[in-house]
C-alpha cells in the first residue's frame, strides 16, 4: 500500500532498523497471507511437484521454525485474511487478473488460490489449525509456554485489522515488546495510527532462520519511525506531536492505498516537504480522526502549486531534450554517440516519477548554498542518463565514481572468522581507510583492496555512483533554475493541452490514477470518507 513510497524516503529503513535479541519478544503475531504467499512463490516453477499436504507441511515447518527462533514469552498469534472490506474488492480483482497472466504459462498451480474463499486456502487453514492443536498436545516446550491465538479465513477482516484489534483488546502493558511477522507494508502506518509505538515489524518472510547462527535480528522499529518523523519539526509542543503523526498517516493515503487511486504526479517527498513548510499556517488536517476539510483543501492547493510548476519545468526540459537528441540544441553538446543513441532509444527517459526524482535532487542542489558537491546513486541507467542531461542544462560538472560496500562491516552478525576480520581491519588502518567509506580509489588501490577482501573472505559488492559539482560561479545553476521557472510559470496551454497524452506515456499504470488537480476537484470527498474509516 502506501509504504512503498515511504520506504525510499530519506533512508528511512536505515534510520528505523534496530537489532534486538530474539528472546526479548513478548508476543509474536504472524500475518499468514504474507508468509504463505512468500513461501509458495519461493518455489517458483517447481511448485507443481508438490501435493497440498507437502505444501502445508512446508508452511507449518516455517511457522514452527519462526516460533522456536523468536521464542515469544507470552503469545503467538496466527492470523489469516478473512473477507476484506467491500471498498477493497475492486483492487483485489485487479491484482488477481495480473497474477493470473503473470503465471499462466509458467506453472499449473494457481497463485490466485492464496486468497479467501478458495478451496486451497480453506484446506491450508484447517490443516495448520489441526497441526497447532497437535503440537500443543505433544508437550513442545515453546508452544506450551505461550497462549496461541488462531484466526482463520472464516473470521471477517483482513489479517492486519484482526491483529490490531487483538493487540488493542489484550495489551494492557504498552511497554510489551510485540513483533509482527509480515511482508505487508501497511503495518507500519497502522501501528502509528493505533498508537502502538512499541511494536517491531519483521519484514523478511523468506529468511532461512534455521540455518542462521546469529541470535539477533534486524527489525523495523515503529517507535524510531515516530521519532524520525518528528525530528524534522523544530520545537514542537508535546500536545502537537500526536497531531503531526496523525496528519502524516492521513497524507500517506495520497500516494497510494487499497481504496482509492493514488496521485501519480506526486512523490512522497513533495507531500512531506509541503506539509513541513506549511503546517503552522494551514493547521492540522486530522484531529483525532476528525478530518478538517478546509485545511485539507488548503494543503492540496499548496501541493498543487508546487507540483504544477515542477511538472511544467519537466515537460519544458523534455522539449529541450528532444531537440538535443535530434541535434537541434546548439548550446548542449554530446560527444558520445552511444549516449545520444541511448537517449533517442528511450525517448524522453520515459518515466515521469523517475524524472521527478532526478529533478528534485538537482533542484535541491541548486538551492543549497552550503554544498559544492553531491553524490547521487541511481540504480536505473535511464535516471543516470537524465541526470547527465540536467547537468548540461544547469552547468554542473560530474564525475563517475565507484565504491565498495562491505557486508556486515562491524561483524555484528558474525559473518567472518575473527582472525580474518581483524587482519582486514588492520590492513584498512594501515592504509587510512574507513570500512564504512571505501570509495574514490584509483585502479591499483581498488585491485589491492579487492584482493585483500578475497584473502580474508570478506563479503562485498561494488557500486557505482556519480558526484556532481558546482562550477566557479556557484550562483549560475540557481539563476538558470529561476529563469526556467519564470519562463514556464505563466504558460498554461503548452502543458495542459497535452496533459493526458503526456502522462499516459510517462506514468506507468496510471490509466485509473488521478493527477493532483483532478484529485482536488473530484476525489477529496471520497478521500475524506476513507480517512474517517481508517482506525
UniProtKB/TrEMBL annotation:
Pfam family, one: XRN_N
Residues covered by the Xrn1 N-terminal domain: 14-201
Gene Ontology terms describing biological process: nuclear-transcribed mRNA catabolic process
Origin superkingdom: Eukaryota
Any one Gene Ontology cellular component term annotated for this protein: nucleus
InterPro entries: 5_3_exoribonuclease, Xrn1_N
UniProt cross-references to Gene3D superfamilies, sorted A to Z: 3.40.50.12390
GO molecular function per UniProt: 5'-3' RNA exonuclease activity; RNA binding
Family the entry assigns: Belongs to the 5'-3' exonuclease family.
Protein name stated in the entry: Xrn1 N-terminal domain-containing protein
Amino acid at each position: 500500500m502506501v509504504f512503498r513510497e515511504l520506504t525510499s524516503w530519506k533512508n528511512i529503513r536505515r534510520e528505523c532498523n534496530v537489532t534486538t535479541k530474539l528472546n526479548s519478544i513478548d508476543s509474536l503475531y504472524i500475518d499468514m497471507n504474507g508468509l504463505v504467499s512468500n513461501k509458495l512463490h519461493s518455489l517458483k516453477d517447481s511448485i507443481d511437484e508438490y501435493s497440498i499436504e507437502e505444501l502445508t507441511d512446508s508452511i507449518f515447518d516455517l511457522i514452527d521454525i519462526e516460533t522456536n527462533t523468536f521464542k515469544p514469552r507470552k503469545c503467538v498469534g496466527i492470523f489469516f485474511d478473512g473477507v476484506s472490506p467491500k471498498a477493497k474488492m475492486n483492487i483485489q480483482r485487479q491484482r488477481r487478473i495480473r497474477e493470473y497472466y503473470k503465471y499462466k504459462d509458467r506453472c499449473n498451480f494457481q497463485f490466485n488460490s492464496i486468497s479467501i474463499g478458495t478451496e486451497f486456502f480453506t484446506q491450508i487453514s484447517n490443516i495448520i489449525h489441526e497441526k497447532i492443536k497437535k503440537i500443543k498436545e505433544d508437550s513442545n516446550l515453546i508452544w506450551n509456554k505461550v497462549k496461541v491465538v488462531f484466526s482463520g479465513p472464516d473470521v471477517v477482516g483482513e489479517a492486519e485489522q484482526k491483529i490490531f484489534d487483538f493487540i488493542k483488546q489484550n495489551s494492557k502493558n504498552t511497554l510489551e515488546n510485540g513483533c509482527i511477522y509480515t511482508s505487508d507494508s501497511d503495518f507500519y502506518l497502522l501501528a502509528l495510527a493505533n498508537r502502538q509505538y512499541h511494536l517491531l515489524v519483521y519484514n523478511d518472510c523468506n529468511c532461512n532462520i534455521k540455518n542462521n547462527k546469529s541470535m539477533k535480528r534486524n527489525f523495523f522499529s515503529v517507535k524510531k519511525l515516530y521519532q524520525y518523523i518528528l525530528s524534522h519539526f523544530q520545537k514542537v509542543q508535546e500536545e502537537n506531536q500526536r497531531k503531526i503523526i496523525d496528519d502524516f498517516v492521513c497524507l500517506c493515503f495520497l500516494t497510494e492505498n487499497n481504496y482509492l487511486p493514488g496521485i501519480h504526479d506526486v512523490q512522497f517527498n513533495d507531500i512531506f516537504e509541503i506539509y513541513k513548510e506549511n503546517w503552522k499556517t494551514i493547521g492540522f488536517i486530522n484531529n483525532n480522526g476528525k478530518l478538517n476539510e478546509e485545511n485539507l483543501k488548503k494543503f492540496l492547493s499548496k501541493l498543487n502549486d508546487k507540483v504544477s510548476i515542477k511538472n511544467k519545468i519537466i515537460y519544458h526540459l523534455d522539449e529541450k531534450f528532444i531537440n538535443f537528441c535530434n541535434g537541434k540544441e546548439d548550446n548542449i553538446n554530446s560527444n558520445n554517440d552511444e549516449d545520444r543513441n541511448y537517449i533517442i532509444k528511450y525517448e524522453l527517459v520515459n518515466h515521469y516519477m523517475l524524472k521527478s526524482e532526478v529533478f528534485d535532487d538537482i533542484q535541491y542542489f541548486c538551492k543549497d548554498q552550503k554544498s559544492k558537491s553531491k553524490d547521487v546513486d541511481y540504480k536505473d541507467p535511464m535516471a543516470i542518463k537524465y541526470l547527465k542531461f540536467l547537468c548540461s542544462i544547469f552547468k554542473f560538472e560530474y564525475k563517475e565514481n565507484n565504491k565498495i560496500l562491505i557486508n556486515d562491516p562491524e561483524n555484528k552478525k558474525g559473518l567472518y572468522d575473527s582472525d580474518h576480520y581483524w587482519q582486514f581491519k588492520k590492513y584498512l588502518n594501515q592504509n587510512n581507510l574507513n570500512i564504512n567509506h571505501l570509495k574514490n580509489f584509483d585502479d591499483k588501490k581498488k585491485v589491492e583492496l579487492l584482493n585483500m577482501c578475497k584473502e580474508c573472505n570478506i563479503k562485498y559488492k561494488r557500486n557505482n555512483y556519480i558526484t556532481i559539482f558546482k562550477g566557479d560561479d556557484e550562483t549560475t545553476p540557481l539563476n538558470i533554475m529561476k529563469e526556467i521557472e519564470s519562463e514556464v510559470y505563466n504558460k498554461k496551454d503548452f502543458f495542459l493541452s497535452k496533459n493526458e497524452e503526456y502522462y499516459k506515456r510517462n506514468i506507468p499504470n496510471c490509466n485509473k490514477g488521478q493527477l493532483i488537480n483532478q484529485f482536488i476537484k473530484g476525489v477529496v470527498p471520497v478521500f475524506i470518507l476513507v480517512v474517517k474509516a481508517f482506525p
